[in-house]
């Protein structure tokens, strides 16, 4: 399987994350992509190629223009305002002070465009996010050109990013941008299967009222896990999109038997939908040693999952999302991808 990879991911190298009330070194760090790339090379998964530059059009097909402008200048605006640390949201238009106004002040803008506080915007974040969507788009075009599968080694990840919000380590929704791009290039229907431990709230919200993208997600129950407010089983789409969202929230300590039952149900729905393209939001934070998650998948389980997805024989683009057990992230990711091809 072809891997698309850009060195520019290294430009996303934040120094701070709020975790458990402390400022810590971010879990979503450059070494993650390096370890995966090393494993791809060591196992001979296939060729590794650089992305091409698609510009902003495919981004604006999914994201709000004001949000994109905010991301582009956020860090410079933050520094110009006299701040010394990384840009971070601290005050939100929550239920009791919802408002149609977008503040002029950068602290206000951060609250408007953020959905979580753990994720800072650091110098280079925007450039890395742009390269990450180019990775997803290049992988998608490789599959649209007739190849059975490709892997976009995206970093930063994307599935928490909504049309006009960042958070959960995500800025641009790479999977959504890829799905929309495929539709714009002639695909009739796209399925997005999100296997990251966390619910793909951004992707769900972008396509919630549409029937041309079927979003399915297996994740830690939002009653117990981030992103806390989306991903319940009764969220199944709205309007034209009714029936084209499927959520499989699973409880703490869920093992592969439990997880696979959800996967097989999701696979049945995907096959009935007969999509022209499958986008897999490939988070591997379902792994038993993941430091911020609570599922219990073992290394070999990822290979079984890749086999099940590959057996659908739908043209498939894998887009990297989360996974923070750095020592094993290469093994579990490549276990999944190599089993798809087998
Ligand atoms: C792409 C992705 O995987 N993003 C995940 C973002 C998670 N951010 C918030 C994590 C809060 C974790 N709290 C964990 C408590 C562990 N006991
Ligand atoms: Zn995750």
From TrEMBL:
GO terms for biological process: epigenetic regulation of gene expression. Keywords: Hydrolase, Metal-binding, Zinc. InterPro entries: HDACs, His_deacetylse_dom, His_deacetylse_dom_sf, Ureohydrolase_dom_sf. Residues 28-330 form the Histone deacetylase domain. One of its GO terms (molecular function) is histone deacetylase activity. The keyword Hydrolase applies. Its cofactor is Zn(2+). Pfam families: Hist_deacetyl. Belongs to the histone deacetylase family. This is Histone deacetylase family protein. It comes from Pelagibius litoralis. The lineage of its organism: Bacteria, Pseudomonadati, Pseudomonadota, Alphaproteobacteria, Rhodospirillales.
